[in-house]
Amino acid sequence: MGLISGLLTLPLAPVRGTVWLAERIQEQAEEELYDESSIRAGLLELEHAREGGDVDERELAEAEDALIERLMVIRGLAGEETDGGIE
User: Fold this and answer.
1) How many whole angstroms separate alpha carbon 78 and alpha carbon 58?
2) Residue 4 domain-assigned?
3) Which structural domain, as residue segments, surrounds residue 56?
4) Mind listing the pLDDT tens digit for each residue in 14-60?
5) 74 class by beta-carbon count within 10 Å (0-12 exposed, 13-18 middle, 19+ buried)
6) DSSP of 14-78
7) Could you count the other beta carbons within 10 Å of the beta carbon of residue 62?
8) What's the domain count of the chain?
């Protein structure tokens, strides 16, 4: 980057820094969202809640379905169901 273009784009430096930070936060969130060990831990927590009777059975089923769906996405099973169809 040349001296003049560097000076002209200097006011945009905070915006570039914010965008960079937002991208790193998004990457971290996606890693946590699709981390198989965190999904398994969530399923274990749901099982403990079911045994303790702390949560409604419907809420447990919804949370369990969401975790299993995330696990299927990680393993690539969700896309295989839609890719094999007739167009």
Assistant:
1) 23
2) no
3) 10-83
4) 888 899 999 999 999 988 888 888 889 999 999 998 898 878 889 98
5) middle
6) HHHHHHHHHHHHHHHHHHHHT-HHHHHHHHHHHHHHHHHT-S-HHHHHHHHHHHHHHHHHHHTHH
7) 11
8) 1
